[in-house]
Structures are given as structure tokens and as C-alpha cells.
Sequence to fold (432 residues):
Amino acid sequence: MKAGKSARGIDGLCSNKTLARRSSMTVALDGGPNQWDVSSFDFLHPQMRIDPFPTFEVMREQSPVHWDGRAHWVFKYEDARSVLLGEEFGRSASTFQEQYFESLGAGQPYEYVIKRMTYLDSGDHHRVRGLFAKTFTPKRIEALRPFIAEMVDRLLEKASPGEKFDLLELVAHPVPSLVICELLGVPTEDRKLFDGWTQRIAHLVSPAITEEQYADAADALADEWRLMEELITSRSNNLGDDLLSELILASRGDDAITHQELVSNCIFLFSAGHQTTRDTVGNGVLAMMREPSEWEALAANPQGLSVAAAEESLRFDAPVVQSWEVAFEDTEIGGYPIAEGEAVFPLLGACNHDPARFDDPDNFRITRANNVPITFSLGPHHCMGSALARMEVSIILEAIATKMPSMTLATEQINWRDTVVFRGPESLEVMF
Fold:
């Protein structure tokens, strides 16, 4: 570990002044939004995992593009669009990315992270994403609908009336992992392994990763990397009608990707696909349980409203907390100067609650008009799997509302996942 870095991840890049502010953060938050000093904003504070929205509101009003000594944080919808779509912004391995992931140290975890398409330079990103996009087609995704619907129905049959159960563990957690396994043609006997590894590896892109989490994630990555390599080797000699076979064929063309890029991004599909769907279901159902009229509306018309309910779930409590870009030149956002090489973080959850873009943004409304959240980012790094995630969430919500219209929370105690990259409850106990 490099000198001055007390932990892996972004903590090691904080100035002493930034770190010192953390001790006063809770007091500032407890004082109420109107009494909060915006200079004490700390994205890594535990309160940001529990309920970030009061903080988002204050920052949006008082410091909508906020420099904290290491990055600019963006809280307004239109400002975020300017960053995500602007040609003066992008992702560069030679600036923020290498600084951020330097603390991972050399070795497989570092290689895995920097080869993911979300962290590649513009040219490499276009090459790798283009190959995956050629095979990750709308037709292939839509063909999964019967498989997903049958699986969701089968999982929900395990719940018994009058008995509480964890909705996330029962259905929202296994579905996305099993869908990616189906896409890639992972043998049935190996599918639970990939599911377990995905949860542990997710910590590698958390700014607040601990030494223990890093060690565990590295072990999981080593195991998953080895099995993915075996799967690719086996499939190369026996190509089939699955996504992995098409990726292998495509990787042999003129715009070929490296072996490391193929393995890394196949593993990345599990992480990206799993976290988003799981947390969107958890956040959305929790919101509707707390807004009974919205749940009643969905239960009265599951087929007609499930797509809209999924979209509002994505907006109301975004499962992906932030995106990031780097300024390629001196520029500005909303009148705030940004220097070349500085990192910019649009906070997607904050932007989705911007009253300048959404009427009554702090309330969950299934029938919200012109509902266009930026949860999946925009521009070159718009989530390639967004259509699949939307379909998974809408199928799950429709099935739950159809089979369990009387569902209620079994407890008001909600514990939020210990991560600042994704947002969702650790569990969601319900009954019907």
C-alpha cells in the first residue's frame, strides 16, 4: 500500500482537510437541511447510504456543482446531461481512472477493473462496447421474456400466505444473475457459483472498500476469472447459439478484443446486470409499500402499469448512485469552472429529483408524465443492458402485483447496503 493511503479506494485520495470534515458531518446533518453547511458535503458519509435526498436538495439549491477538493459533484438534471453528453468530457485512463484505481495495487483486481468497458479510454471503449453491442441485441433480449416470466412465477410460488419472507432473496436477487447465465450459456451446475461471486466482486468499485472486502473480492474474482476462462475455452471449441459464442466469434474479427477484455467484460455483465435489477425492485417495492395508493393502483392493473412502475422505480430511488467523467479541456458547467483533467460526478439520484425537470419529484407516481430519468447515464456510457434491466423489473413487479396484491411490509426497519456505488436495501421482508 502506498504511503499516505490508509485504505484502498478513493479514501486514499482525500486531502487531510476532506477527511477532517467527516467528524462534523453528522452534526451538520442532524441540524436539518436548512442549517447544513455545504462545505461539509461528504459523499462517503454513512448518512448518504441511509437517506441522501435531504442532502441532495440542499446541495442542488446552494451548490449545484460542488468542488470538494478532489472532484466536482453535479446535482441538477440539465447540468448532468451537459456532462454526460458533452464532447469536452469523457473517460481517460491517464487521469482520474489511474489515480482512483492505483490503490488497488498491481494484479488481477486492477486488471479486471481497468479492462471493463466502463473504464476504458474512448477508442478502446468504442471497440469493446461495439463488439458487445453487436451481440447484445434487442431481439436477443426480448427472446428472454418467456424464460424470465417462467422463472419469476416459479420463484414466487415458494412464498406462503401469512408468512413473512425476503422478497429480494426470493426473486430480485437470483433472477438477474440467472438471466446472464442463460445469455452466456453457463452450465446449470455452475450458475450458483457466479451468483455468489458477483456479490463479493462488486466491492472492487466501491470508493469505501475496506481491506477485508478487498481481500474477499480478490478471492472471488480469482475463482470467477478461472471458471470464465474455462468456459470460454470450452465454448471456443464447441460454439453454440448463445451470447458467449457470438462474442467469441466477433472477437476474432478486425476489431478484435483481447483475451483479458473478453473475460473481464463477461464478468462485468454479471455485476452490472445483477445489482441494478435487484436494487430497483427493492427500492421500487419499498416506495410503493410506503405509498399504498400507488401499490393499490399497480395491483389493480399489473399488466397495464408494470412498465411505468418500473420506470418510476428507476427514477424515484436510483439503484446506480453516480456516473463519472473527466474534463478533456478547461470548460464550465452551469457557470461553474472545470479545469482540464478534473473529475466530475453527476449524482444520478439527485438529478432524478430535480424539480426543474420533474413535477413533485419527492413523491412516487406511477403515472408520471414524460418520465425520463437518467439512472442508466447518457451518451457513450449509457448502460448497454438498460433494456434488459427494465424488462426484468417490469416482469417481476407485474408478477408480484398479480400474485400478491395484498402484500405489505413485514417490518419498517430497513438496513441499506454498505456501498456508495449502488443503492438498495440489504433485505425487504414482506408478507401477503
About this structure: Residues 331 and 338 are 5 Å apart (CA to CA). The chain has 19 helices and ten strands. The longest strand covers residues 343-346.
